[in-house]
Design goal:
Helices cover about 85% and strands about 0% of the residues. By secondary structure, it is an all-alpha fold. InterPro entries: MFS_trans_sf, POT_fam.
Length: about 80
Amino acid sequence: MANSAAVNPIFIIGLFVGLGVGTGAIKANAITLGADQFDPHDSSEVHQKETYFSYFYFCINVGAGFSYGYLSILSVDGSS
């Protein structure tokens, strides 16, 4: 097993840097590119755009909640 004193700071730094880069790079670009596919002058596409934003945020938050829950259990109990 690796040295725990060196692994914990590396894990924390990787977690927060990875979270920041992932949130900034993926979430911002995916939502902009997805919203760009709809015509703002067409009323049916305006409704589809609202639905897109709702589903996008729902899926992002459910995925984040699931992954944090799974990773916290994995870090406490070890490999599943």
